[in-house]
Structure formats: C-alpha cells, structure tokens
Amino acid sequence: MSEFVVSPEVAAAPKALLHDHLDGGLRPQTIIDIADEIGYRALPATDPADLDRWFRESADSGSLVRYLETFAHTVAVMQTEAGLYRVAKECALDLAADGVVYAESRYAPEQHVDGGLTMEAVVEAVNAGFRDGESEAAAAGNTIQVRALLTAMRHAARAREIAELTVRYRDAGVVGFDIAGAEAGYPPTRHLDAFEYLQRENSRFTIHAGEAFGLPSIWEAIQWCGADRLGHGVRIVDDIDTSGEVPTLGRLSAYVKDGRIPLEMCPTSNLQTGAAKSYAAHPITLLKDLRFRVTVNTDNRLMSGTTQGREMQHLVDKARWTLADLRWATINAMKSAFIPYDERLAIINDQVKPGYAALGVVSYVP
Ligand SMILES: O=c1[nH]cnc2c1ncn2[C@@H]1O[C@H](CO)[C@@H](O)[C@H]1O
Ligand SMILES: [Zn+2]
Fold first, then answer.
1. Which intervals hold domain Adenosine deaminase (predicted)?
2. Which of 74, 97, 235, 245 has CA atoms 20 to 30 A from the CA of 305?
3. 112 marked ligand binding residue
C-alpha cells in the first residue's frame, strides 16, 4: 500500500460504519488459509501481498460489474460454518482495531449455500463469529457492537425468502435487509414483494441505489420500495443544479434531504467503479455542505484497500473535511443505524461525543 497515513486524530476518533460487506473485507491470509483447507484451487495468487494487490487492481476497473466479479473468490471460501465464523470474527476484530464502535456488516446468505449449508446455518455461523469477535476485541480494550444486514442479490429471485430470514433473526443480531449486485437492468421494484413484506413486519431496509445507475433507481428505492436508507445514493447530485450561485434542489433531492434519508456513501469504492472521478470531486462534500444526512463508509475493505479511518482521512486530505465534519458524519451514521433509538443514543453519548471531546471537538461548526 502507498505511504498514505491516517493521522493520530482520525485513528483515535470513534467511528460508526453502516455499509461494509462481510464478503468484501476478508484478510488475504485468511482467504489463502481457508482455500487451502477446503481445496479451492482457483485463487489468482497464493502470496498474501500479491492476493491483496490482485483484489485492488481487479476492482479498479471503472465498472461495477467487473468490480463484483472479484467476489467469486471471497464467496468461495465462505461456504463452511468454520470459514464463515472465522471471517465474521476477524471482521469484528479488524473494525474494532480501526476504532469502529458500531458496525452493520452485510452479506448475502444465498451466496453461502454452495457447500450444503442452510441459510439459517449461514446466519448463525456469522452471528457466532461476530459475538466472539466482539468479546475478544473488548478484552483487548476495543468496544464494538456488530450487527448484521441480510442482502438479497438483485439479479436472483430469493429476496422474499431472505426478507423472511431477516425477520426470523431480528432479535438475534440481524437488524435489517438490503439488495445488492449489478444495478443496471435490475431495478429495486423487481423485489417489491420483499419490501412490502418487511414494511408489514415493521422491519428496516436499505437499498443499493444511485451507484451505477441514476435517479430512477433512487426514486424507485424510496417512492416504490420505501427504503429507510440508500446504499451509495451518490447520483442524487444529478437532481441538484449547481450552475448558479446557489445550488438548487429538484423534487427528489429535496425529498431525500428534507426527509433526512441517510446516504451510505463510499468514496473509494465509487472511484473504482467510475461512479465518481476523484476524492476532491466526490459529491459527498457537496452533499455534506448542503446538509444531506451523509455518512462515510468503506463498502469493501479488501477490494478497495481501505478502512474506515482511511476513508475519513482521504476526505480530510483531499476534500477539506475537518474533525468536526467527521464527528457530524459519525453522529449521522449513529442516528441512522437500525438498532433501537435508546441504544443509538447511548453510543452517541457514551462513545462518540466523549471520543471527539478528547480530540478537542465538541460541536459542529460548519
Ligand atoms: O458497491 C456495491 N454495489 C453493489 N453490490 C455490491 C457492492 N459491493 C458488494 N456488492 C455485492 O454484494 C454482495 C453481498 O455482500 C457481494 O457478494 C457483492 O456481489
Ligand atoms: Zn455496497
């Protein structure tokens, strides 16, 4: 990796993460170890540094579809209870070491049944890994809470089943639902029955929308499907006119801003898939300045060679974000989390605010 460094302040800041794919954050050595154990022979490299580089370079293609092809290798080693458990536990440990105090980690159960596991067994193995990772991190002095979001793949046809699984495990570590995968050609309304079911069950969900496809996808996600949050949502800027002295919002972008619909933004991932041109020009800063409910996220730590600290540092270095901006985005994330309100408030008051106060940041001064 480059000589790019995360400052001591950003490293120490308490972090909240809403958009992180479990199958996009494996340690390279773990992929190699599990591949060896299960006899998976298709890995593109057998040295951890080479494999790490392969993921980053292959994901750096400018196309979401090509970016997603790299997941074949991570998903391949997440087909056993032991493999899923290890990946989930290490995810909790790695996030905790990065200063993340609350994370929602997502994955698609339907992608982990090729070795004969039921989707229930997949969820339980991942949950067990998160719980043990939390305990081990706490013992090392890093408090983290990790909750799961269950993703349905938008090109597949199992969304309703996975929505039901989400409800079944709602009191056991699963806090919401998502759809992911190639966006163009697979509008969210394809899975309307799943979203309507979740609404009837008073359950929460986010939808990847406005990443590789524009406003119609965002509009459907919100106005047809009832999404509580948007995964990426970066193309909402297409509904903001910045040609004049003051930016003017269209109906949809005003709806998103005024309704405080959270945007789970992932800068590095967007640069790799071509959804944004540079950190400096990434719409996240315009949206922050316009007071949309912006959050900062990793998406896929392995494919993007990133961490939550690195995403935040890029914004500081290249888009003039201050620590106060990072505190604001972190509180936005906690306000938007799918855990109960009282628990969100406790994390804000007991961890986020004191952590930033220790860095000398006590309020948001725009
Ligand atoms: O940025 C993204 N956009 C759309 N889909 C994604 C993105 N990152 C990962 N996945 C997809 O979500 C699945 C479950 O975690 C992954 O296997 C990948 O195919
Ligand atoms: Zn994503």
1. 14-349
2. 235
3. no
